[in-house]
Write a structure and sequence with these properties.
Blueprint lengths: L8 E5 L11 H15 L3 E6 L14 E4 L4 H11 L3 E3 L4 H13 L2 H4 L3 E2 L4 H8 L1 H11 L6 E4 L2 H11 L3 E5 L9 E3 L2 H14 L5 E5 L5 E9 L5 E9 L12 E3 L6 H18 L3 E9 L6 E7 L4 H10 L3 H9 L8 E2 L3 E2 L10 E7 L20 E7 L2 H11 L18 H8 L6 H10 L4 H8 L3 H18 L8 H9 L4 H8 L3 H10 L5 E6 L7 E6 L13 E5 L10 H16 L3 E6 L14 E4 L4 H11 L3 E3 L5 H12 L9 H8 L1 H11 L6 E4 L2 H11 L3 E5 L9 E3 L2 H14 L5 E5 L5 E10 L3 E9 L12 E3 L6 H17 L3 E11 L2 E8 L6 H8 L3 H9 L4 H4 L9 E7 L20 E7 L2 H11 L9 E5 L9 H9 L3 E4 L1 H9 L5 E2 L10 H6 L5 E4 L8 H12 L4 E2 L2 H15 L8 H9 L18
Parallel strand pairs: 1-2, 1-4, 2-3, 4-5, 21-22, 21-24, 22-23, 36-37, 36-39, 37-38, 39-40
Antiparallel strand pairs: 6-9, 7-8, 7-9, 10-11, 10-13, 11-12, 12-17, 13-14, 15-16, 17-18, 19-20, 25-28, 26-27, 26-28, 29-30, 29-32, 30-31, 31-34, 32-33, 34-35
Helix pairs in contact: 1-11, 5-6, 7-8, 13-14, 14-16, 15-16, 18-19, 20-29, 25-26, 31-36, 32-36
C-alpha cells in the first residue's frame, strides 16, 4: 500500500522532559518518526517541551513547537496548523494520554484530525485497566486476578479478597508511577491513594501478586494488513516484583523453552490484533515456573523503553517502521536484508544482549536502595557479546561506576555469608554484586534461587565467573598464565579488572594479551527495514568480520548511560558532532553504550560501535579504524575521564587538549591564570585532610562551598555554615573521591549567578549569549531556572562576562566548546569555574539563539577558524526560560529542597516575547502550572526573611490571599504587611499541612533553614508534591513566579513555532544603528 492520499500534514506529540520512566528513548523514537514520515512526503508538525532533544532541532520537522504539553496548548497548535492526522504512539505515555484527552474533549473531531498508528479506542483497550481486562477475557488469555477501583475503601476490600501481598497498578501512567507491591492494609492505603492521584482517570488495578514468577517481554509489530512479526524476545533475569526499567535483562531469551516462546508469541499476536495497533507494541508476561501458568501483565501500545532496547538489540528500528506503517506502508513493502521484505522477519542474531540499569540513590539522602514495582533507574546501558558471560561483564564496565568487574564492590567481600544472604532478601541496585560475593563464600545456587527468584542457570553462569576469578587470584603479584588470560578475556574480564586482581598495571595486561594476539574482534548487527546498514560490537569469541575503509575518519566518544548530572544534552552534542564530521567529508565513527539515544541510532554516524567507554574498548576500536582524531569534549565527564590515558597511548585528541581540561580542574593552576588575567575569583583553597580544611576555613571565613574535584552534576557539593558542618562533610566526602583533594571556596551568599557558553578556536572565542540564573547562588546550575537574555544583570556586567569568557578561552587555548560560571556580588563579576567542554546548556542556547553550537564547535575542531564561520552577535528579541524537572514524585521519602548538588533529571523550555510569560510557560511545561488567583503560603527561614519582602508584596498586590507561619507573620507585621497566620506542624490543628490537604493552598513558598532543613519543613514540601501544589524553595524564584503570573494575567501567550522565533532573530541582526534599540514587544 503506498503513502496515504487522505493526509498531508501529521502532528507528532513528544514526551516532554526526561523523567524516571520516560527518558531519551523518546527523542530517539521521535527523531526516527520525523525522518520516516518526511521521507514519505508528509509535512510534519512536532510539539515537545524538551529543548535538549535532537527532535526539537528546527530542521528535524517542518514546523517545531517547544511548548508545554497540555490540552489547551495542543488545541491552539491544532487550530493554527490544521494537521490532517495525529501520531500519538511515539511520545511515550505523555503522547498517548494527550491524544486520549484531545479525543475526549472533542478537539480532534472538531478540527477533522484523524488518529493514526494507534486509534483512541485502541489506547483505551491497552491503557484502561478495566477495558484491557475485558479484552483479555474475550480472548481467553489469563491475567492475574484483579479488580479496578476508584477509591481506597474499595481497594481495601479487593485486597482482602485476593490476599496480601497485592500489586497496585495505576491506569494511564508509566514507569510504575504511583504503584507498588503492598504487604498490609496500611501500605495499601498509602500506595492506593498515591496511585489514584497519579492516574489520569483516577483508577487503579488491585492485582494478585505474582512475585517471584519470571518476567518475559515481547516486542511485536503489526501492519494494516494484519501481518505481524515478533521483533525481540526479552528475558528479565530479575523476577516479577522488580519494575522492568530496573530489571537486568537479556535478549534473546536464554532459558525459555521454544514451546513457551511460541505460546507467548501467539498470545501477543492475539492481543495486538484485538487492540488493533498499527506499529510496535510491548507485551509483558509472567510465567510461574512451578505450575507453568502464564498471565499477561500489561501492554504498551506505543514505542517504549523496551522497544528502544529491542531496536538496538536486534537492528530493527521499531520507531521508524511504526511510522512508515502509520503513514500507509505495510511490512511487505519495507526491505529486509535477509529475506527480502519485513513480513518475513524473525530475530536471528547469534549474539547475546544484556541491559543493566543505572541508578542515582546517592543523590537522594534518605532514600532506601530498594527495588520494587515503581521504577527508580535514571538510565541504562546495553552490551553485546558472543556469550552471556561476555555481554554481562561488558554491561558492568559500561555503567561507569568505577567497577570493571563484579567482585570486590564496596565492602561486600568482607561481609559474612549470612549477612550477604540477608541483604539479598531485599532487592537492591547492588544485588548482583552481593550475589557474586555470596558465591565466592560458598553460597548454594538453589539457596540463592529461593532467596532472589533468579533462575539457577544465571546463577550458575555467575558461579563459573567466580571460580575463574578465584583461579586468577592465585597469581596475585605475578604474571597470569597465557591460557588463563585468554579464557578470562573470552569470559568478558576487563584488562583493568584483571590488573587489579593480580596487582599490576593495566598496560601490562594489554601488552601480554597483544603479544598472544588475544585482541578484540568485531561482528556486525545488520539493520532491518533499510538498505545495507549495520553497527558493530566486539568479542573475544569469534574472528573479525568487519572491514575498514580507507577514508579519513574522526571518532566521537558518547556519554554512556544517562544519570543525574549527565543526560541527554551531551548526546545532543555528540549527534551534532557526527553530522558535522560527515558534512566535512570525513567518515564519522561513534562509540557509545546507551540504547536510548539518537547517537546509537544506525544512521547518525557512518559507523557505530556499541561498546563500553573504557580505555581498553576505545583503544581497540582506535587501533582498528585508525581515525585522525578523537572528540572527547561532547560526551560529558565520561570521555574526559579517559582522555589523558588515551592521549598517553598515542590517540590524537581533537580540540582542547587533555592538559587544558586538567588545568581547569586544578584549582591552583587555574587560580594563577585568573590572577594573571586580572579576573576576580572568590577566595578558595584545596585541602587533602581535615586539618588543612579547617585552616582554610579559618582564613576564608564562613559560609563556604565545598566539593570534591573532578565531578559532574555537583556530586558531593555542599554549602557549610560552621566548623561542625565542615567536619560532618569531610568525613563523608573522603569516601566520594579518595584520590582527589577537597575544594573549598568562599560562598557568595545571595549573589546573582550567570553563565556563558563559548565557541573557541584557540586564539579567539565567540559568546552567543549570557544566561542568568533565576535562583541565587547556592543552587546547582543544572537545577536552577535560567533565562536568555538576562533580565537583571547590568549591561556592563554582561559585557564583562563576555570579555572574561573570551580571555579565559584564549588563555587556556580552548578549541571547541567552553562553559564558564560566574557570580555577581557587590557589583563585581567573579568567575566560579570554567569547563572546557560541552555543557548542559548548549542545546538551550542553540534553540533560543538560533545557533548550532555543537556543530560549529566541531567545524572548529576540524580546523576552521572563527573568522571563517562569519558569526555575528545578535539581539535576541524574545526570552527563553529553562526550568528543571525533578524526580521527587518517585522518591516520596526525600525532602524536595534544592542545593549545590544537582538532583534534576531533565528540563523544559518556555519561550515568549515577554519574560514573565516565558517563565509561566516553563512552569506550565513541568506539569505544575502556577495559579492565577487564590492563596499563597509563605513559611520563610530567618536568613531569607528580608529577601521575602518583595515576593510577599508582589503576591499581595496581585490580590492573592497570603498565609504565613508564626515567625514569618511576626516579621512581616513589623514591616507593615498584614497576612493571615497558620499553625506550623506540631503547634496545634488545623496546621499548614491540613490546609494543603484541604486544597486551601494554591502555591507554597517555603525556604529551608540550615544544613538540613527541619523535619517539619521537609514534611510540608513533601505534602505539596503529593497533593500537586506548586512549591518554591527560594525567594528569587518566588519573585519570578509573581512576575510570571502578572504577565499571564494580561493574556495567554500565543503559540509560535521555533522557526518563527529564529526568523525574528535574523531580522534583528546587530548593526551600529541598532545599538541600544528597545526590545521587540508581542503577546507570544
Amino acid at each position: 500500500m503506498p503513502k496515504r492520499t487522505d493526509i498531508e500534514k501529521i502532528l507528532i506529540i513528544g514526551s516532554g522532559p526526561i523523567v524516571i520512566g520516560q527518558a531519551c528513548e523518546f527523542d530517539y523514537s521521535g527523531t526516527q518518526a520525523c525522518k520516516a514520515l518526511r521521507s514519505l512526503g508528509y509535512k510534519v508538525v512536532l510539539v515537545n517541551s524538551n529543548p535538549a532533544t535532537i527532535m526539537t532541532d528546527p530542521n528535524m520537522a517542518d514546523v517545531t513547537y517547544i511548548e508545554p504539553l497540555n490540552v489547551n496548548v495542543l488545541t491552539e497548535i491544532i487550530e493554527r496548523e490544521r494537521p490532517d492526522a495525529l501520531l500519538p504512539n511515539l511520545g511515550g505515555q505523555s503522547g498517548l494520554n494527550l491524544a486520549s484527552e484531545l479525543y475526549r474533549k472533542g478537539v480532534l473531531d472538531t478540527n477533522g484530525v484523524k488518529v493514526i498508528g494507534v486509534g483512541v479506542d485502541a489506547i483505551e483497550r491497552g491503557e484502561d485497566r478495566l477495558a484491557f481486562k475485558e479484552t483479555m477475557q474475550r480472548l481467553k488469555i489469563e491475567m492475574p486476578r484483579s479488580r479496578t477501583v476508584e477509591d481506597v475503601a474499595d481497594a481495601e476490600k479487593v485486597a482482602e479478597e485476593l490476599g496480601y501481598p497485592v500489586v497496585i497498578r495505576p491506569a494511564y501512567t508509566m514507569g510504575g508511577t504511583g504503584g507498588g507491591l503492598v504487604y498490609n492494609v496500611e501500605e495499601l492505603r498509602t500506595v492506593a491513594s498515591r496511585g489514584l492521584a497519579a492516574s489520569l482517570v483516577h483508577q487503579v488495578l488491585v492485582e494478585e501478586s505474582v512475585l517471584g514468577w519470571e518476567e518475559l517481554e515481547l516486542e511485536v509489530v503489526r501492519d494494516a494488513k494484519n501481518q505481524m512479526i515478533t521483533v525481540c524476545f526479552i528475558e528479565n533475569v530479575d523476577a516479577m516484583g522488580i519494575h522492568t526499567g530496573d530489571s537486568f535483562c537479556t535478549a534473546p531469551m536464554l532459558t525459555i523453552a521454544p514451546e513457551l516462546q511460541k505460546r507467548l508469541q501467539q498470545h501477543a499476536y492475539d492481543i495486538v490484533e484485538a487492540i488493533q495497533v498499527i506499529g510496535g507494541t510491548n507485551i509483558q508476561f509472567a510465567h510461574d515456573l512451578e505450575t507453568g501458568r502464564v498471565v499477561v501483565i500489561e501492554i504498551n501500545p506505543r514505542t517504549s523503553r523496551s522497544s528502544a532496547l529491542a531496536s538496538k538489540a536486534t537492528g530493527f528500528p521499531i520507531a521508524r517502521v511504526s511510522s512508515l506503517l502509520a503513514g500507509g506502508q505495510t511490512l511487505d513493502e519495507i526491505p529486509y536484508w535477509r529475506d527480502g521484505t519485513l513480513e518475513k522477519y524473525t530475530p536471528s542474531g547469534d549474539y547475546v544482549v544484556v541491559k543493566f540499569a543505572r541508578w542515582a540513590f546517592e543523590k537522594f539522602e534518605g532514600v532506601a536502595d530498594v527495588l520494587g514495582t515503581q521504577m527508580r533507574a535514571v538510565g541504562e546501558v546495553m552490551s553485546i557479546g558472543k556469550t552471556y558471560k561476555e555481554a554481562f561483564q561488558k554491561a558492568v564496565r559500561s555503567l561507569e561506576t568505577n567497577r570493571y568487574g563484579l567482585g570486590f564492590a564496596r565492602n561486600f567481600h568482607q561481609l559474612p555469608l549470612e549477612k550477604l544472604l540477608g541483604a539479598l532478601g531485599s532487592p537492591s541496585s547492588e544485588r548482583h554484586f552481593q550475589m557474586y560475593e555470596a558465591l565466592r563464600k560458598g553460597a548454594d545456587v538453589q539457596a540463592l534461587h529461593r532467596i532472589t527468584h533468579i533462575k539457577p542457570w544465571f546463577i550458575e553462569q555467575m558461579k563459573e565467573l567466580v571460580a575463574l576469578e578465584e583461579e586468577i587470584l592465585i597469581y596475585q603479584g605475578g604474571r597470569l598464565p597465557d591460557g588463563l588470560l585468554e579464557q578470562a578475556k573470552k569470559d568478558g574480564f576487563a584488562d583493568r579488572y584483571l590488573a587489579r586482581l593480580i596487582g599490576c598495571r593495566e598496560i601490562e595486561i594489554r601488552e601480554q594479551r597483544r603479544a598472544l594476539n588475544v585482541v578484540e574482534a568485531w561482528e556486525p548487527v545488520p539493520v532491518s527495514g533499510v538498505d545495507e546498514a549495520a553497527y558493530y560490537y566486539s568479542t573475544y569469541n569469534a574472528p573479525d568480520r568487519v572491514e575498514v575503509s580507507e577514508r579519513r575518519k574522526i571518532m566521537v566518544l558518547g556519554g554512556g548511560p544517562n544519570r543525574i548530572g549527565q543526560g541527554i544534552e551531551f548526546d545532543y552534542c555528540c549527534v551534532h558532532a557526527a553530522l558535522a564530521i560527515r558534512d566535512a567529508g570525513f567518515e564519522s565513527i561513534m562509540v557509545n553504550c546507551n540504547p536510548e539515544t539518537v547517537s546509537t541510532d544506525y544512521d547518525t554516524s557512518d559507523k557505530l560501535y556499541f561498546e563500553p567507554l573504557t580505555v581498553e574498548d576505545v583503544l581497540s576500536i582506535h587501533e582498528k579504524e585508525r581515525p585522525e582524531g578523537v572528540i572527547v569534549q561532547f560526551g560529558g565527564q565520561t570521555p574526559l575521564n579517559i582522555a589523558a590515558e588515551l592521549a598517553a597511548a598515542g590517540v590524537t585528541i581533537l580540540g582542547t587538549s587533555p592538559d587544558t581540561i586538567d588545568l581547569a580542574e586544578d584549582r591552583d593552576r587555574f587560580r594563577r591564570i585568573m590572577r594573571e588575567l586580572g579576573i576576580p575569583q572568590p577566595d578558595s583553597g584545596m585541602a587533602s585532610n581535615i586539618h588543612e580544611a579547617q585552616e582554610i576555613a579559618r582564613t576564608i571565613g564562613y559560609p563556604l562551598i565545598v566539593r570534591p574535584s573532578y565531578v559532574l552534576g555537583g556530586r558531593g557539593m555542599e554549602v557549610v555554615q560552621d566548623d561542625v558542618m565542615l567536619q560532618q562533610y569531610l568525613v563523608a566526602a573522603v569516601e566520594i573521591s579518595p584520590e582527589r583533594p577537597i575544594l573549598i571556596d568562599r560562598f557568595l551568599d545571595n549573589a546573582i549567578e550567570a553563565e556563558a557558553d563559548a565557541i573557541a578556536d584557540g586564539t579567539d572565542a565567540f559568546v552567543p549569549a549570557v544566561m542568568e540564573h533565576i535562583e541565587l547562588a547556592g543552587i546547582h546550575s543544572g537545577d536552577s531556572a535560567c533565562v536568555i537574555p538576562p533580565i537583571s544583570i547590568a549591561p556592563q556586567h554582561i559585557e564583562t562576562i563576555r570579555e572574561y569568557t573570551r580571555k579565559i578561552a584564549v588563555a587556556l587555548k580552548v578549541v571547541g566548546l567552553m562553559n564558564v560560571q560566574y557570580a555577581i556580588f557587590d557589583n563585581t563579576v567573579y568567575v566560579l569555574e570554567a569547563n572546557p567542554r560541552a555543557s548542559r546548556t548548549v542545546p538551550i542556547v542553540s534553540k533560543v539563539c538560533s545557533i548550532s553550537m555543537a556543530r560549529l564547535a566541531t567545524q572548529v575542531m576540524l580546523g576552521k577558524k572563527l573568522g571563517e564561520l562569519c558569526l555575528q552577535q545578535r539581539i535576541i528579541p524574545h526570552y527563553g526560560v529553562k526550568e528543571a524537572v525533578f524526580p521527587f514524585n518517585m522518591f516520596p521519602e526525600v525532602d524536595p529542597v534544592l542545593g549545590p548538588e544537582m538532583r534534576s533529571t531533565g528540563e523544559v523550555l518556555g519561550m515568549s516575547h515577554s519574560y514573565g510569560r516565558a517563565f509561566f510557560k516553563a512552569q506550565e511545561a513541568t506539569q505544575v502550572t502556577l495559579p492565577l488567583k487564590g492563596t499563597v503560603l509563605f513559611t520563610i527561614a530567618d536568613r531569607d526573611k528580608t529577601a521575602a519582602l518583595e515576593p510577599v508584596r508582589l503576591f499581595r498586590d496581585l490580590g492573592f490571599r497570603i498565609l504565613t507561619t508564626k515567625g514569618t507573620y511576626a516579621f512581616l507585621r513589623q514591616k507593615g504587611i498584614d497576612t493571615e497566620p497558620v499553625q506550623k506542624l506540631g503547634f496545634g490543628r488545623p496546621n499548614l499541612v491540613d490546609a494543603i490537604k484541604n486544597n486551601q493552598i494554591q502555591l507554597l513558598v517555603n525556604t529551608p533553614s540550615g544544613r538540613q532543613s527541619s523535619h517539619a519543613s521537609a514534611e510540608v514540601r513533601k505534602a505539596a508534591i503529593k497533593h500537586k501544589i506548586p512549591y518554591i524553595t527560594t525567594t528569587a524564584a518566588a519573585i519570578a513566579a509573581a512576575k510570571g503570573i502578572a504577565a499571564r494575567r494580561e493574556g495567554a501567550p500565543k503559540v509560535r513555532p521555533l522557526q518563527e522565533y529564529h526568523t525574528n532573530i535574523q531580522q534583528w541582526l546587530v548593526a551600529e544603528d541598532l545599538k541600544g534599540a528597545g526590545r521587540k514587544t508581542g503577546d507570544g
